[in-house]
Amino acid sequence: MKRITTIFTLILVVALMGVSCKDKASKKIVADNVESAVSRDASDKMVPVMTFEKNEHDFGTIQRGTPQETVFTFTNTGNAPLIITNAKSSCGCTVPNPPKDPIAPGETGELLVKFNGSGQNQVTKTITVNANTAKGSEILRIKAFVQAPGTVPAGPVK
């Protein structure tokens, strides 16, 4: 009885597969959909690319509490307008100020970063820039050796 049930089930499955696969896939293609897919794919290739002159800035040795600033200059080397949606730092002591307007292809922009000089010894902070690029975000770094006020710079004694 089990054999008959198993054989009958297999015959039924094969018959259903034979009936359901009669339509050819090429007959289901709509020409209008193909044209819209081609134009959509062409527009997807148009993306901005953020190319920075430098990804890291070293302030060197600074006194604690001394505000510092640097500018990260970048160029849109892509073929679509670059829009920076957000720029945030790894802590509140570093404040990035990105451009608000879109950057056209081939144009340059500046990202001002302010650091309040807090911390002690070697300090490294990161800035994450979110934009409409293929990667979606870029990481920038600032670093400094922060000394307490009134201390002598470390180094060899003459």
Automatic annotation (TrEMBL):
It comes from the Bacteria. This is DUF1573 domain-containing protein.
